[in-house]
Structure formats: structure tokens, C-alpha cells
């Protein structure tokens, strides 16, 4: 391999006991090159990055191969020397910035810590350097934001803090592990542009780990595909997208953009109507916690969800999408306006006027699937107990345990799992399987409306395609209605009948998928569509 390479991974093998997790992989990253490592969850991408950082758990052994950083074997360095390499020569950005930042420490101090450790900068000099870094990564009012805590920043700003921390000591190699997965399209576009401009200015090499082919198309110079611990294909970007040879790569590319088939507009009756819905949260300050203002999370929204149809609600984080879902479910107490639900014989019931006791019978009619299936499932309960819980508490179907067991088996098979899975716990499943369990739990109480709150944003492209197909099949079979909350524009044509676009608590535009995707009227909608990765735009607007 060329001496010019910043990183050489040579015939790396990682094992747990006799199980091979990484199987003889080799690749090289050149100066100022963006090298994308792609594949599904569990393929070994993040393990490879942890091996480069020498942060592998003790149970995982390196049984063969080597990793060279500028011709220096990282495996030969003692730990005290490796500590000088981490942060100074190789830095890493993680997928979820909130869990990577200390919640009780100011963000500026967290970045300054890196400078103090590696460069010996102190106090005023460290602060000046951090503020300059914050300005470089596009954090507004950098001097003020230095003293903010992580919870005071948006998701995109937290990710920018992580990038500033990674760049603090001017490393030769930046490892970006799914850095945009949890971000909106507009924020994702900004973060990707930022990484590209920093690469250009600093000559920085980037190992970009992702499962998003749109991001790969936007960013990569070279692409390697991992499956079950092996690299099955490696090529420069042009050959990769135009002449992929491996069947697995072709499947990834096929699933990268959901089929753009517009759903027919059916005549349907109203199931749920929001009329001038408002959710305002008080801002309290001072010793006596006096109210000094209001956060208008939802500010006069009117929407209609029809029987057997899907309304997609799109917009950036903080626009109020999830708060609307919570208001429908009566999980927020500061609701004004009307949420009308079509009850028996289409009698309209205003949910906002109901007490918790009056609302309980309607809970079986309106269910929810959450974004993060792991935190939404009780880790101490088996899958059988998780699904049975709603059937018992809401008295749905037979209360005979044997009948319920049969119903649980049937539900698991409907969502593509096996009946014997009911005895397992959530941690024993992959992300896609856990999301299927969440869907089974929602179906167990025979709902008419399911609020899907970003249900596919954390999933791989192939798993996402399966979950979307499952939701579509279930809709056709049971005439379900969905409120589908998402920031992923590429999935809207394959899942939605109508679309509403939210910004700052208001619906700025709504209409059919065709109208919104191909003839948007509002500048904000156009900005959202233009922020989608080029690969997605090519297919959406073909």
C-alpha cells in the first residue's frame, strides 16, 4: 500500500471466543479522502471504527491483522501513548450527540477539556480557541453558546459541538459514525456541507460510517460495503453507483430510495379532525418560577385524517410535529382548540374535553409507534408481556390467557416475527425487529388510528423498506389510518395520501403528495425538498 495513506487497515480479524465478528478486512484512506463504510446494523462498521480507536470491549480480541496510522502500528502502542493519539491524531463523532455530551457541564468547557489535555491551553486561551471552533462549525453567537448546557441546544447544534470537539486538536483522521442519522434534512445538509468544507480547508481525511446511500452519494470519494463482518465490494463513488456488482450492494441501492408510487386519492370519511389546535408551554424563571412567556409549540393547527388513509406530517425538529401527536393522545395538559374523533355512528367526540377516565375507552382506538423502539419497550418484560399489557388494561378481546397467547402468536407472525419470539426480551432483537414488536403492540388493541412518530428514522434502508411495506399491508388489511410524523421526504410518496408541512408550530402548506412534492407553493417547503440528498432528489423528481 502507498506510503501516502493516512490509514491502512490490513487483514483485520476480530473474534469473541470462536465467533468471527470482523473477517479479514483491508482498506486504505488517502489524505483528504472521504472513505464511506456502508452496510446494515450488525455488519461490523462501528466495530471497525472502535478497533481503529482501540476502544474495543475486553471480550473482543484482535486475532490477526494490523491498523497503521501514517505507517505507525496502533496495536503496538502502549495505552498511555494511544491516549495521545485519540483526539490529537484520530478523532471521532458519534451518532447520538446527546449521549456523547456531559449533561451537567457547559458545552464550551467540554471542548476546552480536549484542548487542555492535548495542547496544554488554559483558561482564556482555551476559551478563545473554542469560540473560534464554534464559529468555524457555524454555531450562532458562539461566545454566548460556550456557556450553554447540552439540553439548551438543538440536535443540529449539539452535533456541531461534537464536530468542534473532534476538530479541536486538528487531527489527521476524523471518524464520523452515522453523524446525521438523527437529524432533519435541512440540518443534515448543513452538517454534510460543513464536513466537506472542513475537509477542503484542512486537508482532513474522513472515515464516514453510514447506512444512508443518499449521504454516501453526497459525500464519498471511495465506498466499501460491509456484510456480516466482510467487505463484499469496494470502488470509487462513480463505479459504485453506476456499476455495482455484488447482489447485496445492488439490494442496498434498490432500497435506498423507496418506490415513488403515488397513492390514489380515495373518497373517505373523516376519522379525526384538528381545529385551531394550540399547545403553549409556559416559560418560568426566577426564585418563584413566575411565567415570563410562552413557547408556542403548536399554534393554531387544523388538519383532517381520513379513515383508511395516511397523513404525513413533515418539518424540522422543534416544528411541533410530535407535540401534535401527544396532544391527540392527551399526553400534554396545555391543549386548546378541538380534537374531534369520529366515535360510534360517526358521532364527533371532542377529545380535549374528556377526563382521563372518559378518555380510557378511546385509548384502544388511537395507538402510537415511537421513534426509538428500544426505549419504548420495557427491558424487564418479555415480548408476550409487553403485547398482552394493552389487551388486559384496555380489556380488548378475550381475557382468557390461552386465547391471548394465540392472539399474540398471530400478531407476531403478522409483523414478520416468529411465535416463539414471545418468550424473549427486547435486548435480544435487532432495531428493525424491535420496531415490529412496537407495531404488534399497537395492533393488539385493534386501533383505528396509529400515530407513527418517526418509526423508520433509526432503521437501515433494507429494514426501513420492510417496515414501510408492513405498515402499508396492515393499512389495506384493517383499513387503518396513520398520522405519519417524519423528516424523511423520500418515504412520503410510498406511504402517504396527503401531506402537511409544519414550521414553528404552524402548518404552512398541506395538500396531496403530488401537489406538495411536485408543485410546492411555500418557500419553506421548497427549502425542505432542496435539502434532500441529491440521490433522493433525482428519484423523487424524475
TrEMBL record:
Limits of the ABC transporter domain: 7-253, 272-529
Record flagged with keyword ATP-binding: yes
Database matches in InterPro entries: AAA+_ATPase, ABC_transp_ATP-bind, ABC_transporter-like_ATP-bd, ABC_transporter-like_CS, Oligopep_ABC_C, P-loop_NTPase
CDD domains, A to Z: ABC_NikE_OppD_transporters
Example GO molecular function: ATP binding
Sorted UniProt keywords: ATP-binding, Nucleotide-binding, Transport
Matching NCBIfam families: PRK10419.1, PRK11308.1
Family the entry assigns: Belongs to the ABC transporter superfamily.
PANTHER family the record matches: D,D-DIPEPTIDE TRANSPORT ATP-BINDING PROTEIN DDPF-RELATED (PTHR43776:SF7), TRANSPORT ATP-BINDING PROTEIN (PTHR43776)
Name of the protein this chain belongs to: ABC transporter ATP-binding protein
Organism expressing this protein natively: Thiomicrorhabdus immobilis
Amino acid at each position: 500500500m502507498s506510503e501516502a495513506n493516512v490509514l491502512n487497515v490490513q487483514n483485520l480479524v476480530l473474534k469473541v471466543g470462536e465467533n468471527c465478528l470482523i473477517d479479514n478486512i483491508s482498506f486504505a484512506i488517502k489524505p483528504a479522502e472521504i472513505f464511506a463504510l456502508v452496510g446494515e446494523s450488525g455488519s461490523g462498521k462501528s466495530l471497525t471504527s472502535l478497533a481503529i480507536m482501540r476502544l474495543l470491549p475486553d471480550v473482543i480480541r484482535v486475532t490477526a491483522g494490523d491498523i497503521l496510522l501514517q505507517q505507525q502500528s496502533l496495536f503496538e502502542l502502549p495505552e498511555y501513548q494511544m491516549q495521545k493519539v485519540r483526539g490529537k491524531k484520530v478523532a471521532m463523532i458519534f451518532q447520538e450527540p446527546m449521549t456523547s455530551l456531559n449533561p451537567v457541564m457547559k458545552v464550551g468547557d467540554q471542548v476546552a477539556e480536549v484542548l487542555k489535555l492535548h495542547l496544554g491551553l488554559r483558561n482564556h486561551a482555551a476559551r478563545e480557541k473554542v469560540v473560534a471552533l464554534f464559529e468555524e462549525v457555524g454555531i450562532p453567537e458562539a461566545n454566548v453558546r460556550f456557556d450553554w448546557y447540552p439540553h439548551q441546544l438543538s440536535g443540529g447544534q449539539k452535533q456541531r459541538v461534537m464536530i468542534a470537539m473532534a476538530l479541536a486538536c486538528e487531527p489527521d483522521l476524523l471518524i464520523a459514525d452515522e453523524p446525521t442519522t438523527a437529524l432533519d434534512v435541512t440540518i443534515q445538509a448543513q452538517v454534510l456541507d460543513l464536513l466537506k468544507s472542513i475537509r477542503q480547508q484542512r486537508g482532513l481525511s474522513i472515515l464516514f460510517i453510514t447506512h444512508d446511500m443518499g449521504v454516501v452519494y453526497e459525500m464519498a470519494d471511495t465506498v466499501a460495503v460491509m456484510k456480516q463482518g466482510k467487505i463484499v465490494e469496494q470502488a470509487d463513488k462513480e463505479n459504485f453507483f453506476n456499476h455495482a456488482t455484488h447482489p447485496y450492494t445492488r439490494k442496498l441501492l434498490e432500497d435506498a430510495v423507496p418506490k415513488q408510487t403515488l397513492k390514489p386519492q380515495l373518497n373517505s370519511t373523516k376519522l379525526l379532525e384538528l381545529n385551531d389546535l394550540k399547545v403553549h408551554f409556559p416559560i418560568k424563571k426566577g426564585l418563584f418560577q413566575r411565567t415570563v412567556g410562552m413557547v408556542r409549540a403548536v399554534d393554531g393547527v387544523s388538519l383532517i385524517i381520513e379513515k383508511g388513509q395516511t397523513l404525513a406530517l413533515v418539518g424540522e425538529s422543534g416544528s411541533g410535529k410530535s407535540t401534535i401527536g401527544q396532544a391527540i393522545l392527551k399526553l400534554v395538559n396545555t391543549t386548546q382548540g378541538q380534537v374531534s374523533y369520529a366515535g360510534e355512528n360517526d358521532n364527533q367526540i371532542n377529545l380535549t374535553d374528556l377526563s382521563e377516565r372518559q378518555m380510557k375507552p378511546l385509548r384502544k382506538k388511537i395507538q402510537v409507534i415511537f421513534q426509538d423502539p428500544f426505549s419504548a419497550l420495557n427491558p424487564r418484560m418479555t415480548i408476550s408481556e409487553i403485547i398482552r399489557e394493552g389487551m388486559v388494561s384496555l380489556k380488548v378481546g378475550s381475557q382468557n390467557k390461552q386465547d391471548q397467547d394465540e392472539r399474540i402468536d398471530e400478531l407476531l407472525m403478522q409483523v414478520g416475527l416468529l411465535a416463539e419470539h414471545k418468550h424473549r426480551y427486547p435486548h435480544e432483537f435487532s432495531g428493525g425487529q424491535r420496531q415490529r414488536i412496537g407495531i404488534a403492540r399497537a395492533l393488539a388493541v385493534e386501533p383505528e388510528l396509529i400515530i407513527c412518530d418517526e418509526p423508520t428514522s433509526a432503521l437501515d434502508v433494507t429494514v426501513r423498506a420492510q417496515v414501510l411495506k408492513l405498515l402499508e399491508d396492515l393499512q389495506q388489511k384493517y383499513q387503518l389510518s396513520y398520522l405519519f410524523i417524519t423528516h424523511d421526504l423520500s418515504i412520503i410518496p410510498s406511504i402517504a395520501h396527503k401531506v402537511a408541512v409544519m414550521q414553528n408550530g404552524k402548518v404552512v402548506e398541506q395538500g396531496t403528495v403530488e401537489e406538495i412534492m411536485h408543485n410546492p407553493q411555500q418557500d419553506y417547503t421548497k427549502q425542505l425538498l432542496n435539502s434532500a440528498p441529491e440521490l433522493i432528489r433525482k428519484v423523487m423528481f424524475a
